[in-house]
Specification:
Layout (H helix, E strand, L loop, with lengths): L4 E6 L6 H15 L3 E6 L5 H7 L3 E4 L7 H13 L2 E7 L1 H14 L3 E5 L9 H15 L4 E4 L2 H9 L8 E3 L6 H7 L3 H8 L7 E5 L8 H8 L8 E5 L5 H10 L6 E5 L13 E4 L8 H8 L4 E4 L2 H7 L6 E2 L3 H12 L2 H18 L2 H16 L2
Parallel strand pairs: 1-2, 1-4, 2-3, 4-5, 5-6, 6-7, 8-9, 8-11, 9-10, 11-12, 12-13
Length: 369
């Protein structure tokens, strides 16, 4: 154990994989005798959750580019005696590594996915050049999956010696204790008790391709089918409009942003994850750990999570997803079998304790403890 002060710097406190990951890390560090400090914008419900957990939490506009934010970060880190800065996300990664350089303390940065494909040519070049520069001032780059590490190395974003692969993990005991039963979960989400339900929980962003869930569901010949998309974001208006245009009407449910959404996953018969790209999808791991069968796009991150031969991997098209949804929803045995296989995999290979002990060891290594 160590009494060292470690600053966890976030770009958002909205419910999602990155902030939830940091909550788990900060809680672990505090229990182990470290002094975690979390800083980020007060833009989501997890900001108060950090404080309720007894973690020193500071409001900082890391989601905006302002010189004053860097100056404030340096001042706050100096006042609290921060010995290491661990940043998560693009904006936090910029501020965190500049502040660490100014203070003469080591920087660790986690890449929670590499998302730059939607940028124009100039912006993409600038972003990659900036990441390469910042990596020179970073002691360790944490990659949340092996495919992400391979991509980052190919892009020259960091050196092999800097990289550590630390896959996300699930706290199965906490998750199981918090999860409510099917009937209660459906009531909370406004879903009928007897309908078949396809569900997902994600940031409403084009990279998540939640439109495919709606398009695929519209192809399933079940008039009682429901689709529940938990979350919020820039894509919400488009998704609601699409649901209406597909004739889904009230069969598409948008419950909004929900903290600890996984506690309601037992409301789903199938969990859908059609993302174009992921780092290491925490919500998918949570669904798997609860035994909710996952149908996911056949991308590198999902292959690592589900296993390359998993029948849950499908081509990300409305036709392929619709066929997979329809087949599973019509076959109770197949659904139960897939859910059981995925539950075993999540619990045996993606345990949160491995993630947390590895990160703690990295901090000890960087600080020479």
């Amino acid at each position: 154990m160590s009494g060292a002060v470690v600053l966890q710097l976030l770009v958002s406190t909205q419910p999602g994989g990155g902030p939830q990951h940091v909550l788990a890390v900060a809680t672990w560090l505090r229990a182990r005798g470290w002094q975690p400090v979390v800083a980020g914008p007060r833009d989501g419900a997890l900001f108060e959750r950090f404080r309720e957990s007894g973690i020193d939490t500071l409001e900082l506009a890391t989601n905006r580019l302002r010189p004053a934010t860097l100056l404030r970060l340096v001042r706050l880190a100096r006042e609290r005696g921060v010995r290491l800065i661990h940043s998560h996300g693009k904006g936090a990664g910029l501020y965190g590594r500049l502040a660490a350089r100014a203070l003469g303390v080591p920087a660790v940065h986690t890449l929670h996915g590499l998302h730059f494909e939607s940028y124009g040519a100039v912006a993409r070049t600038a972003y990659l050049a900036l990441e390469r520069r910042l990596s020179r001032w970073t002691r360790v780059i944490v990659n949340v999956s092996r495919p992400q590490e391979a991509e980052g190395l190919a892009l020259g974003l960091f050196d092999r010696g800097q990289s550590r692969v630390v896959v996300n993990g699930v706290d199965v005991s906490r998750l199981t204790a918090a999860a409510v039963d099917r009937a209660e979960a459906r009531t909370a989400l406004g879903l009928p008790p007897s309908a078949r339900v396809i569900g997902s929980a994600a940031r409403f962003d084009s990279v998540k391709r939640l439109d495919l869930v709606l398009r695929a569901a519209a192809r399933v010949p079940d008039g009682a089918l429901r689709v529940a998309l938990i979350g919020s974001g820039a894509d919400e208006r488009r998704l609601r409009g699409l649901a209406a245009s597909l004739g889904l009407g009230t069969r598409a449910v948008f419950p909004g942003e929900i903290v600890d959404a996984a506690r309601l996953f037992r409301a789903f018969d199938v969990y859908a994850a059609p993302s174009a790209k992921e780092g290491m999808p925490l919500a998918v791991l949570e669904a798997m750990a609860l035994g909710v069968p996952v149908v996911a796009s056949d991308i590198a991150a999902h292959r690592e999570v589900l296993g390359r031969a998993s029948p849950g991997l499908v081509e990300p098209t409305p036709e392929a997803l619709g066929s997979a949804f329809g087949a599973l929803l019509a076959d109770d045995h197949a659904r139960a079998t897939l859910g059981a296989e995925q539950r075993t995999r999540a619990r045996s290979e993606f345990d949160v304790r491995q993630m947390l002990t590895t990160l703690e060891a990295i901090y000890g290594e960087v600080l020479g403890l």
